[in-house]
Amino acid sequence: MLLLLSLIGSVYLLFSHWQILYAAAETNGFCSSASTSLGSTTSESACTSATYSRWSAPIAGVPAPIFAMVLLILILFFELRRSLKTEILFSLYCFLFIGTAGYLLLNFLELKKPCGFCLTAHSINLLLCLLFYLRQKELGGEKKELKAVVWFTALLVYLVSSIITGVLVESVLLPAIAKAKGWQYYLTAKSMRYEKFLLPETDLRTPNVVLGTGKKFKMTMVIDYTCIHCRDHLFQLSRTLNYLNKQAEIKFILNPLDAECNFQSGGDQKGACGFARVSLCLKDGEETKDFFQYMFEAPESALVSIDTLLKTLKFDETRTQQIVACYNSEPIKTELSRHIEFAIKNRLLGTPVTFYADKKVVGQMSMSQWIEFLNH
User: Which of 255, 268, 277, 284 is nearest to 346 (CA)?
Assistant: First the structure.
């Protein structure tokens, strides 16, 4: 009964995984002359956070619930046929215990926002392992010379069958469910709103930030640090990079929609010019990274003033004075004007605008759109 309950739970988790990735409403967020005040919509449920984790599809892009489903089906098969090698069943339960314990630790140590349903499913799996251990204390003493071979074979069969099942399920079952449920993103993914556009070369001095880990690629983004849609756009990119195990080096072209320095924008993003100038005064590396995290991860209430920014970044007094002198200097104001002129010349009149390879996307993207954009 517990095995069937755990299997049903894994099926539900798989459906939730797909629903979060493919059923989310599309967004066309874009800051322009009609920009609204600052804000953030990056709050998410614990289940959503778990789905966006890099561990939600750990091998070959196959969702973790599929690995659990295949393992539970194999265990159920050998439980019903106990005349077969009991050691295979023992090894499968060991895989279940290791996987469950590992994901329990990840829920608390990495996600720091445990998914309630996931914890329930993991608890059932641990109970299954405990009950099997109590029933089979005598296992392990017979045919020890075959144990390594049996374990290796069981692991190989399990992983290969999981990957094959994952590919088949996502090739056949997922499209059918998407059509039945009306998941428009999945059904219209190939018609995503990007256009062919090769950004001209420029000698602008740009802030650069590296996000994610894994295979590295480069992109350029036109942003206003105070634009709500830029904040959400980069938040979704960060989750996507974790999910795809990729790393992005992002070059920022600054387009603050603040009439203080950008007279043609007519925007109302107050303070955007000051934050943009500060970013041009920072050194590449830790200073830029800390600034980026502050601007795009801090709550709205923290984006108050340059003084608050410098205090939060904890520069020493000498460095703080250097930055203050820099962002008020004419050369930096001129450099920012060059950024704005470049944006206007190329008709990049709002934010965010993203360039990757020969593609251009206007507006903020959801995680599902980022996946489509980076994979095609």
Answer: 255
